[in-house]
Amino acid sequence: MKKMKNIYKISIMLLLIVTACTDNLRDISFADNMALPTDVTALYEITQDNTGAVTITPTASGAVSFNIYFGDATAEPASINQGESVNHIYAEGTYEVKVEALNLSGDIVETIQQLVVSFQAPQNLVAVIENDAAISRKVNITANADFAAMFDFVSGETGVTQPVVSGNIGTTISYQYETAGTYSVKVIARGGAIETTEFAVEFEVTEILAPISSAPSPPNREANDVISIFSDAYTDIADTDFYPNRGQTTLFTAFDLNGDAMLQYNNLNYQDIDIGEEVDASAMEFLHIDIWTPDATTIDIFPLPNGIAAADEKFVTKELVPNQWNSFDIPMSDFTDQGLAVTNLKQFKIVGSGSVFIDNLYFYKVSVISNFNDGLLTNGDFENGSDSWLVGVDDNSAAPVVTNAGNTYYSVNVTNANPSEPYLVNVSQKLEIVAGNTYTLTFDAWSDVNRAIIGGIGLSGGDFSNDSKPVDITTVRATYTLTLSSGSFGAADARVLFDLNGENGLVNIDNVSLNLKVDNLLTNGDFQNGSASWLVGVDDTSAAPVVTDGGNTYYSRNVTNANPSEPYLVNVSQKLEIVEGNTYTLTFDAWSDVNRAIIGGIGLSGGDFSNDSKPVDITTVRATYTLILSSENFGALDARVLFDLNGENGMVNIDDVVLSIN
Q1: Burial class (CB in 10 A: 0-12, 13-18, 19+), 220
Q2: Of 183, 280, 352, 580, which one has the greatest count of Cβ atoms within 10 A?
């Protein structure tokens, strides 16, 4: 594989030189960071003429080429590019075909598939045709038969080219119908023989018209941080009228899913909700709503003030994906920036078409981290204003802070950036740093633009020796963690530092914590021992999938059939003792091939699966994430650290997982 990787890099370099010979030699280090190919498979197509001629078409996400080992006496594999096929003549028999998928770096992922070549007509055909449990009008088909290599599915629709889909025998294929109804369907098993074998049946394709699973559970929030209109998780405002009939065509039903109450509006054109009392939402940061629909594509959401006038009708439009829960956290600024006053809200209006199910309608603000521990620092959460925080190393200065919705934090706007002198805008706190130690610096940061800052530890004089690293922050408040070393410096008046002058834009910093790097409560948190101690879900007999790339081993899983209502269906965890009443810090690296969310946390591995878990937005860039978690209401010897991944499609890579007690 090493030779293969070098060959690919040389090819890339030659291509770049040929296509841009006047430029400097370009950086090709990106080839070292390519994701491994996933979903490696091959489709067989065998001619039905007793010749044994088979066409093999391999596919994989992230692959550029394939090696096909035919499984017979042929010594050398066939090498083809993505999108190509290879033809091969087989004698009658059963073969193990190996498909190697290669990415641009030359990394290889392989799969082995069985191929049956027979000149007898398929026998003992068993076909299973089922409506998909989660997606309307989707049908899943599985077929098995002796002496068969492939099967076709004939959908029974008029005006549609048949067969509509084909697959290898023994696999499951799917087909999406345009409309529900009863169809005359067929499954046709094929092999190398001219004759085929068919299974025919009248099959009813069904429509899912209501949710079959609950919306995602809202997180625990302090009572002062939420104003709930409709949600089982919080205390709702009493006497709210969810169907004040004003002559509209909308029909209302109180829908119940196994004890989970929802609001069902059919034949929607518009619908009012009269809140039981006037609401002042000016201290809230977001409006949350969960919506499920079988057929609606958009919805307009209006919070309305008491004594509404036409000028007060300010709304936000959200696109809806049918047959799944659509969860929205709408910034209150989306309404207030339109001029809407939110101090005396008394009503909601929703406008759309089709049918919608609504749950978890509430206002909320992000809680200031409770039980905050600033470690070796003083006033790390800035709740005492500028206390202990300086501009640069000036002991007579006071770092600028602001207070918003009861939370105080550092804030400065950089307007004349100079990347060569990032320290010209700087905030720091002096403290003792001992030479030769390793420290963990954790902080929250956000901006009004996407920009970089520098965080670290170092001396406050002399040669200003330091260990500092760039951090890319965004417009969304997030927690960042840096692992820093004082291997070559130390002093009683050293400091934690943030250099901010490298780029223009607002910088907000809060909840800064510095700690000596702690022992990890987990085993094999860096996955260098492969899957050891890491499980799929809570199955003690399972082994979490890992990959090794460039000598580094990490957890890796590609989610292809996401279900936001059941994120735990793709899960990795490690069991360990969680003591009730403690606060823990969970730190980990994560990255993906897309921007997507995952869930990380701690919790029980059985019973009611009590947990404290939080969503984390990961990107295509490897980054470190930190969660502060509480076991206030649960604990067990076989509890666990958990990551639920099935909420969205996309690759999830996780590495360097650390759990520590605060």
Answers
A1: middle
A2: 352
- Give the separation between CA 26 and CA 14, rounded to whole angstroms: 11
Query: Are 145 and 228 part of one and the same domain?
Result: no
Tell me how far apart the alpha carbons of residues 634 and 639 are, in angstroms, rounded to a whole number: 9
What is the 3-state secondary structure of 393-451? Answer: CCCCCCCCEEEECCEEEEEEEECCCCCCCHHHCEEEEEEEECCCCEEEEEEEEECCCCE
Over 90: is that where the pLDDT of 122 sits? yes
Of 132-136, 263-267, 601-605, which gets the smallest average pLDDT? Answer: 132-136
| Domain housing 615 | 535-661
pLDDT the model gives residue 283: 92
pLDDT tens digits along 566-597: 999 999 999 999 999 998 989 899 999 999 99
Which among 173, 205, 237 is the end of a domain? Answer: 205
Output the six-digit token pair for 415: 């307007």
Q: Which of 516, 549, 570 is the last residue of a domain?
A: 516
Q: If pLDDT is split at 50, 70 and 90, which confidence band does 519 have?
A: low
pLDDT value at 13 more than 50: no
Whether the predicted pLDDT of 224 surpasses 90:
no
Q: What is the tens place of the pLDDT at every residue in 347-385?
A: 999 999 999 999 999 999 976 544 567 889 999 999 899
Query: What was the pLDDT predicted at 645?
Result: 96
| DSSP structure string for 163-183 | S-EEEETTSEEEEE-SS-EEE
- Give the separation between CA 588 and CA 594, rounded to whole angstroms: 18
Structure tokens at 508: 């907000």
Same structural domain for residues 186 and 244?
no
* Domain containing residue 319: CATH number: 2.60.120.430
Least confident of 19-28, 160-169, 371-380: 19-28
Q: Please list, in sequence order, all residues whose beta carbon lies within 8 angstroms of the beta carbon of residue 531, skipping any fewer than 6 positions away.
A: 543, 544, 545, 546
Do 99 and 159 belong together in one domain? no
Which sign does the torsion angle of CA 329, 332, 334, 340 carry? positive
Judgement on whether residues 227 and 360 belong to the same structural domain of the protein? yes
Confirm whether 313 is domain-assigned.
yes
653: domain CATH number? 2.60.120.260
Burial class (CB within 10 angstroms; exposed 0-12, middle 13-18, buried 19+) of 122:
buried
Q: SS3 for 568? A: helix
What would you report as the CA-atom Rg of the chain, rounded to the nearest whole angstrom? 30
Cis amide linkage into residue 163, ω under 30° from 0: yes
Nearest of 475, 415, 421, 468 to residue 451 by alpha carbon: 475
pLDDT band at 626 (very low <50, low <70, confident <90, very high): confident
Q: For residues 358 and 486, state if they share a domain.
A: no
- In this structure, the answer to whether residues 41 and 108 fall within a common structural domain is yes
Which pLDDT belongs to residue 247?
Answer: 79
Domain assignment of residue 297, yes or no: yes
Question: Is the pTM of the predicted complex or chain greater than 0.90?
Answer: no
What is the number of domains present in the chain?
A: 5
Residue 125: left if φ>0, alpha if ψ -120 to 50, beta else—which one?
beta
